[in-house]
Amino acid sequence: MTADPLLTFFLPAALGIIMLGLGLSLTLADFARVVKFPKPVLIGLACQLLLLPLACFFLAKAFGLAPALAVGLMLLAASPGGTTANLYSHLAHGDVALNITLTAVNSVIAILTMPLIVNLSLMYFMADDQAIPLQFAKVVQVFAIVLGPVAIGMWLRSRFPGFAERMQRPVKIVSALFLLLIILLAVAKDWRTFVDYAPSVGGAALAFNLLSMAVGYCVPRLLKLNLRQAIAIAMEIGIHNGTLAIALALSPALLNNPTMAIPAAIYSLIMFITAALFGLWVNRVHGAELAEPAPGR
């Protein structure tokens, strides 16, 4: 069977540009900040890497999702935060530096955690003959797809800071357009499944999104992080890198299963609306506190 050039060329190129844009916004200091301010970073990572996959698993069971859709939702849960979380956190008066650090660190950790979570999900939800384990060679491919462009972006920022600054906005616009195109591609590749399962997948995606933001906000508050840090973590784990999840699901070299892309496609449409509503709510309830100068870190 001839490989679809749209999948073999467009998806990696689109994801590469999106991850390059992420790299243009990062510096080595964003990673060093973990050592300097470990508590909020560790709490955010614990929510992202431990609590979310667990919550997602029980939601997939509760909604009775078809096996491929359940794996797709777990794939989304394993994906790192999206770069748009930084923008939403800024608009909601969150701690944007924390967002950037979490995005940077989680993008690296996800290279190991995503294959692990997807493998476990495939073994649990799908029959043995349907499982497509992410073997070492495929882990290396994911590593190259995700971290290669990020490293190039970081290098460009370190060597040509003015150019990197000028390119951030156009790259973000192009990234948003690519995200929309990738969502449309994911839906078009498995339109019948999308129509048949949209209500249940939509309900599961919405429930997972609301739960993600609730965990991201409430757990840090319970652990005595300040309000801006809680907002940042809520945005970080509520806005997933849906593009990465869709690309891995559709890629002929990786999962090659359009059905698995549907939860991420639906979630990617929902998350921007709920994130905006969350930002409006938290600023309405805590407007006076957020109007004060940000506390020193």
UniProtKB/TrEMBL annotation:
<feature type="transmembrane region" description="Helical">
    <location>
        <begin position="41"/>
        <end position="60"/>
    </location>
</feature>
<feature type="transmembrane region" description="Helical">
    <location>
        <begin position="100"/>
        <end position="127"/>
    </location>
</feature>
<protein>
    <submittedName>
        <fullName>Bile acid:Na+ symporter, BASS family</fullName>
    </submittedName>
</protein>
<feature type="transmembrane region" description="Helical">
    <location>
        <begin position="170"/>
        <end position="188"/>
    </location>
</feature>
<keyword id="KW-0472">Membrane</keyword>
<feature type="transmembrane region" description="Helical">
    <location>
        <begin position="139"/>
        <end position="158"/>
    </location>
</feature>
<dbReference type="InterPro" id="IPR038770">
    <property type="entry name" value="Na+/solute_symporter_sf"/>
</dbReference>
<feature type="transmembrane region" description="Helical">
    <location>
        <begin position="66"/>
        <end position="88"/>
    </location>
</feature>
<dbReference type="Pfam" id="PF01758">
    <property type="entry name" value="SBF"/>
</dbReference>
<feature type="transmembrane region" description="Helical">
    <location>
        <begin position="261"/>
        <end position="282"/>
    </location>
</feature>
<feature type="transmembrane region" description="Helical">
    <location>
        <begin position="231"/>
        <end position="255"/>
    </location>
</feature>
<feature type="transmembrane region" description="Helical">
    <location>
        <begin position="200"/>
        <end position="219"/>
    </location>
</feature>
<dbReference type="InterPro" id="IPR002657">
    <property type="entry name" value="BilAc:Na_symport/Acr3"/>
</dbReference>
<dbReference type="InterPro" id="IPR004710">
    <property type="entry name" value="Bilac:Na_transpt"/>
</dbReference>
<keyword id="KW-0812">Transmembrane</keyword>
<keyword id="KW-1133">Transmembrane helix</keyword>
<feature type="transmembrane region" description="Helical">
    <location>
        <begin position="6"/>
        <end position="29"/>
    </location>
</feature>
<dbReference type="GO" id="GO:0016020">
    <property type="term" value="C:membrane"/>
</dbReference>
